[in-house]
Amino acid sequence: MEKSLFDKYGGFSTVSKIVLTLYDRLLEDDDVGPFFDDVDLSRLIDHQTKFVSSLMGGPASFSDDHIERAHRGMQIEDHQFDRLKEIVAEVLTDFDVEGPDIATIVGAFEARRNILIEKPDVN
Q: Which 3 state secondary structure label does DSSP give 4?
């Protein structure tokens, strides 16, 4: 039986370190950092640790409905989502996550693009 990415890379202990590093970088980034100006970071980091764990096959789970509700009205644009994916890939690389595994995790983010990007009002 093949290990999940969550188990392969050390479980919550490693994912927690990855997410802490990720938010250090996101907060410093001009494109995505402003989204976190008025956010309870400790709560967000806890949620994000569970979310990334779920993307890696860990025990936590998130529905797309939950993700959509949490991001509704944030007016996230494609270039900001692309920058987020770049930073995620950089952080995973720094934690020695293998290339194909990075592609899997970043692909899981990409699979949710359509529920995170603000859609133009066509009315």
A: coil
Tokens of 39: 């956010």
Closest CA to 95 of 66, 56, 123: 56
Cα–Cα–Cα angle for 30, 50, 108, nearest 5°? 65
∠ Cα 35 37 40 (to 5°):
100
pTM of the model: 0.88
Grouping H, G, I as helix, E, B as strand and the rest as coil, residue 7 is helix
Q: Which residues sit opposite 76 in a β-bridge?
A: 117
Rounded Cα distance, 7 and 74, in Å: 33
Q: Where are the alpha helices (DSSP H) in 1-123?
A: 5-8, 11-28, 41-55, 64-71, 78-94, 99-110, 113-116
Q: What is the pLDDT of residues 17-67, one digit of tens each?
A: 999 999 999 999 999 999 988 889 999 899 899 999 999 999 978 788 888
Tokens found for residue 36: 């976190």
